[in-house]
Recover the amino acids of this structure.
C-alpha cells in the first residue's frame, strides 16, 4: 500500500524544477502544511510567498506575478480556492490569460469528516465553464510527478486537483507516455468502458478485474485531463464498446460525467451511467467509505455494468 | 506655456475626446472618466515610464485601472500617447470591437482585464512583488474608485502590500464622493478613509485631484517612504469640466443628447489653455 501523498510529490517535483527554473514562485494561503509545500518554502524562501488566509488576494497576486514574467503556483485548499476566488480565477487568470497554475489541495471529499465547507465537489463544473483554463487530475503519485512537469512546460491558466490522502498506485513508475489532453487506456475491453480520473481510476481497475470473472470485458480510461477533453478517446470508446460509465469524485451536476455526455450524445449516443456525488452535502467519512456509499465500489460497478450492457443489447 | 499649462491643455483635449467618443457611441461611463482625467494625464505625461513603441518593456512602469468602467479617459489617453491609432476608437463599444467598455489587455498599453471592482490592487501587489524579486526599479500604480473600496478584497490587498513593504506600489483613490446610487457616504460609509489606509500601514498623501502641480508632486518618487506602499487620495469632482455633469450621479453612465453634447463641447473649448 502506497503511503506517499500526491501533494508531497507535487512539492518535490516543484523543488526539482526550481533548481533550474528560477521563475517558479509558490504561493500559499496559510496552507503550506496542508499543501505539503513547507519543504519548498524552506528550500526556496525567495521563491515562496505567504499571503495568509486570503484566497481572492492570492489569486490576484499570482496573476500580477505572472503578468510580470513569473510562473506562479497557488497551492491552497481546492474548496476555498475555487469558490471563494472564483471571480479572480475567471478574470485575473482566465480572461486576462495569465500563466497561473492553481493547485487545489484536498479536493473532492478527501477532507472527509470536515464536511461540506471543506469538500470541493463543484470545482470542475465551475472551472470548466470558464474559457481558457486547463483542468487536470493525477491518478497516483507517478502521474502527479508527470502532471507537475507538464504544467511547468505548459504556458497558460491551469488547475490541478489534488486529493488529501495517499492513493494506491495505478502505474509501476513515472516512466510512461503522458501528454496533457491525451487520455490513457489503462485496460482494454469491448463490453463497456469506464471513464474516470484521479483516485477512482484504481476503483475502476478493480471493478474491471471483478467483471472479467463474470465474462465482462471492461475498458478503463484514465481521463487525467478534464479540459480539454480527449474527445477522440471518448468517441472511440462509445463506438467500440457501446456503453459508458463515468465516475467522478465531484457533483454529478455539470462535472466530468456531464462533459463526457456532451461529447457522447452529440456524436455517438450510447447508454451511459454517471456516477458521482448526488445533489446533497456528501456523507462524511473516509474516501473509500464515501465512494462505496454512493455506489462507487467494484461490486456495485459490476451491477451497473450489467444494467448498461442489457440496455445496449435491448437497443435502448 | 509652462509644464502645468500644457498638462491643463492636454487634459481639456482628452476631455473633449471623451465627450466626442461617448456621444458618438452612445455608451461609456462619462462621469468617472471626467473625474479621473487629470490623474491619468499627470501619470501618462509626467510620471510613468512607458513607451508606446515598446509597450511590454520589462522595465516599464505598470498602471492598472481597477475602476475599469472609467475606460473612456483611459482609451483617449492611450490613443493620444500613440499606443494605438486614435481612429481605432471609432469602433468603441461597437459589434466585435476590441475596444469594449472595460480594459482589454489585447490592446497595446493595457496590462490586465479589469472591470469587476476590487481586483486591481491584488494584481498590483503581484506586479510589485515581481519587481522586488527581480531587483527592478519600475513602479506600479493602481487607480481605484471610492465606491470600489467597499469590496473586501481591496483590504486583503492593502494588508498584503504593507506586509510585503511594497514601496514600489502606489494606489490612487479617485475620491469623487459618488457612486452609481449616490453619495458614497450614504451608500456605504468609507470615511475616515485616510485613517483606514494609515492603520493598514500605508503612506497616505492627500491631494487635489484636479491640480497638476499637486498631482505630479504626489506621484513623485521623493514622497516614497522606504518599506511602505503609498496611497494618494485624490479629491475629485465626478463629471469634472462639464458643468451639468459635475457632482451628479446621473452622469455615472449617462448618455448625452445633441444639445447636451454641444454644451459640453462649448464648455471644454473655453478652457483658457485651449484658447491660447
Ligand atoms: Mg466614485
Amino acid at each position: 500500500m502506497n503511503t506517499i501523498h500526491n501533494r508531497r510529490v507535487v512539492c518535490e517535483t516543484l523543488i526539482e524544477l526550481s533548481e533550474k527554473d528560477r521563475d517558479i514562485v509558490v504561493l500559499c494561503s496559510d496552507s503550506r502544511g496542508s499543501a505539503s509545500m513547507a519543504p519548498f518554502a524552506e528550500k526556496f524562501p525567495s521563491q515562496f510567498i505567504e499571503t495568509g488566509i486570503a484566497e481572492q488576494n492570492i489569486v490576484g497576486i499570482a496573476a500580477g506575478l505572472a503578468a510580470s514574467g513569473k510562473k506562479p503556483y497557488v497551492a491552497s485548499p481546492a474548496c476555498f480556492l475555487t469558490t471563494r476566488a472564483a471571480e479572480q480565477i475567471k478574470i485575473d487568470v482566465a480572461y486576462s490569460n495569465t500563466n497561473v497554475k492553481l493547485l487545489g489541495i484536498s479536493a473532492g471529499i478527501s477532507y472527509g469528516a470536515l464536511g461540506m465547507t471543506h469538500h470541493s465537489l463543484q470545482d470542475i463544473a465551475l472551472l470548466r465553464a470558464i474559457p481558457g483554463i486547463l483542468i487536470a487530475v493525477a491518478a497516483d503519485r507517478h502521474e502527479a510527478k508527470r502532471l507537475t512537469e507538464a504544467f511547468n512546460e505548459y504556458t497558460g491558466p491551469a488547475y490541478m486537483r489534488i486529493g488529501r490522502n495517499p492513493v494506491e498506485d495505478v502505474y509501476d513508475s513515472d516512466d510512461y507516455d503522458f501528454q496533457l489532453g491525451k487520455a490513457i487506456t489503462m485496460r482494454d475491453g469491448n463490453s463497456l468502458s469506464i471513464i474516470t480520473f484521479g483516485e477512482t481510476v484504481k476503483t475502476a481497475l478493480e471493478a474491471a478485474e471483478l467483471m472479467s470473472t463474470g465474462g465482462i470485458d471492461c475498458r478503463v480510461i484514465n481521463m487525467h485531463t478534464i479540459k480539454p477533453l480527449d474527445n477522440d478517446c471518448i468517441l472511440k470508446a462509445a463506438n467500440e464498446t457501446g456503453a459508458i460509465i463515468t465516475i467522478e469524485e465531484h457533483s454529478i451536476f455539470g462535472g466530468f460525467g456531464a462533459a463526457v455526455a456532451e461529447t457522447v450524445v452529440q456524436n455517438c449516443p450510447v447508454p451511459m451511467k454517471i456516477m458521482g456525488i448526488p445533489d446533497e452535502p456528501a456523507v462524511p467519512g473516509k474516501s473509500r467509505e464515501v465512494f462505496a456509499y454512493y455506489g462507487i465500489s467494484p461490486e456495485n460497478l459490476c451491477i451497473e455494468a450489467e444494467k448498461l450492457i442489457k440496455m445496449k443489447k435491448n437497443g435502448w | 506655456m509652462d509644464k502645468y499649462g500644457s498638462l491643463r491643455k492636454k487634459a481639456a483635449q482628452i476631455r473633449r475626446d471623451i465627450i466626442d467618443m461617448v456621444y458618438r457611441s452612445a455608451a461609456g461611463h462619462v462621469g468617472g472618466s471626467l473625474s479621473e482625467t487629470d490623474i491619468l494625464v499627470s501619470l501618462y505625461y509626467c510620471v510613468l515610464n512607458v513607451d508606446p513603441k515598446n509597450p511590454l518593456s520589462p522595465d516599464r512602469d505598470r498602471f492598472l485601472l481597477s475602476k475599469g468602467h472609467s475606460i473612456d479617459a483611459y482609451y483617449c489617453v492611450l490613443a493620444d500617447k500613440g499606443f494605438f491609432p486614435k481612429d481605432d476608437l471609432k469602433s468603441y463599444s461597437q459589434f466585435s470591437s476590441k475596444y469594449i467598455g472595460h480594459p482589454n489587455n489585447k490592446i497595446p498599453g493595457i496590462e490586465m482585464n479589469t472591470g469587476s471592482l476590487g481586483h486591481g490592487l491584488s494584481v498590483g501587489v503581484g506586479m510589485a512583488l515581481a519587481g522586488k524579486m527581480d531587483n527592478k526599479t519600475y513602479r506600479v500604480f493602481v487607480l481605484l474608485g471610492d465606491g470600489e473600496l467597499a469590496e473586501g478584497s481591496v483590504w486583503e490587498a492593502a494588508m498584503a502590500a504593507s506586509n510585503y513593504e511594497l514601496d514600489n506600489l502606489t494606489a490612487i483613490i479617485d475620491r469623487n464622493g459618488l457612486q452609481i446610487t449616490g453619495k458614497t457616504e450614504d451608500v456605504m460609509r468609507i470615511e475616515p478613509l485616510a485613517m483606514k489606509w494609515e492603520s493598514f500601514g500605508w503612506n497616505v498623501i492627500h491631494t487635489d485631484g484636479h491640480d497638476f502641480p499637486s498631482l505630479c508632486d504626489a506621484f513623485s518618487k521623493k514622497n516614497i517612504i522606504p518599506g511602505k506602499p503609498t496611497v494618494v487620495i485624490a479629491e475629485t469632482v465626478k463629471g469634472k469640466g462639464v458643468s451639468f455633469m459635475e457632482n451628479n450621479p446621473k452622469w455615472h453612465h449617462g448618455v448625452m443628447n445633441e444639445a447636451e453634447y454641444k454644451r459640453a463641447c462649448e464648455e471644454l473649448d473655453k478652457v483658457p489653455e485651449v484658447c491660447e
Observations:
- Residues 3-275 of chain B form a domain with the Rossmann fold fold (CATH 3.40.50.970).
- Residues 24 and 110 of chain B are 23 Å apart (CA to CA).
- The pocket of magnesium ion is lined by residues B 145-147, 176, 178-179 (CB under 6 Å).
- The first helix of chain B runs from residue 3 to 25.
